[in-house]
Amino acid sequence: MSMTLALTTGPVRQVTRRAVQVAITLFGLLLLTFFIGRVMPIDPVLAIVGPDADHSTYQQVYHQLGLDKPLWTQFFIYLNGLAHGDLGNALLTGKPVLDDILRVFPATLELATVAIIVGAGLGIPLGVLAASRRNSLADYIVRIISLAGYSTPIFWVGMMGLLVFYAWLGWVGGAGRLDFGLDGVVPRHTGLMTVDALLAGNGQVFMNALKHLVLPASLLGFHSLAYISRMTRSFMLAQLSQEFIITARVKGLSVRHVLWHHAFRNILVQLLTVVALAYGGLLEGAVLIETVFSWPGFGSYLTGSLLLGDMNAVMGCVLLVGVIFVMLNLLSDMLYQCFDPRTKS
């Protein structure tokens, strides 16, 4: 009886503790963002009424926004609305912030997902290759690629990519997610342009969306590839210096078997964290690529809201970013138990 009770209360206690940690993290994130936003030298009232409005109009809007109330009162009013699913209205569009986020986030999700597939799909094998041939030509090439991905400004790479592959060669699409004449042809279901085109059975829109997606996603993928390949190389070098690897080689196991079935399996847990953090960074940090390619995504929306001083939109975006990173960490913890049974204890 006592053992059964322990088995049932253990997972419940773990879930409860994790839920409390998530709630405290998000509350602290909202609190910090709210008060930083209120002390920023940006006046949201002027963004609404304009610099030529008279004093009475200014005071009326100032009162309607609740800016005449104490900061703590404003914060708890916002939390009360958040508890009822209300993130407020955006000054930039005049629409509910939640509707705006649901409209722009799928574009960034599509871009970041393809980018992390490119980054992890190429970065991990390159990192393993570099570690297995340390100080060889292949290792030096991978390290140069990694250094170039770190040091080259992403906005410059984006502009050069547009110049070469779009303007000169014509291999890819230009700015935006679609050509002008194809915008709005397929109905919006998921917000992912390639998926919506497939659901509608429109091959022309799918190929056009793919042509517009491949270049910005590849450039973002190259940026994440540099980080992932470097971390993979470091993890693999640490494993290849262990005694059990030397023992496996002495027993006559092939190099490929030792690399992938012994050394690589031991770094899977670490790589999960690296890839998850890289994916989260792509979801909230693709603003430069979105600006260069006129990509109507989450990063562009957040930047415009910050410049306008639209704290409702900024708070909604910050909350989404916090939820993304928390959920990615939770997913990583769950996958840990699949790849490393020792973490179950």
Automatic annotation (TrEMBL):
Chain ranges of the ABC transmembrane type-1 domain: 105-336
Membrane topology: Multi-pass membrane protein
TM segment ranges: 20-40, 111-132, 144-169, 209-228, 267-293, 313-336
Keywords carried by this UniProt record: Cell inner membrane, Cell membrane, Membrane, Transmembrane, Transmembrane helix, Transport
GO terms under cellular component: plasma membrane
One MF term in the entry's GO annotations: dipeptide transmembrane transporter activity
Family matches, as Pfam families: BPD_transp_1, BPD_transp_1_N
Cellular localisation: Cell inner membrane; Cell membrane
Family: Belongs to the binding-protein-dependent transport system permease family.
Identification of the protein by name: Peptide/nickel transport system permease protein
The organism of origin for this protein: Mangrovibacter plantisponsor
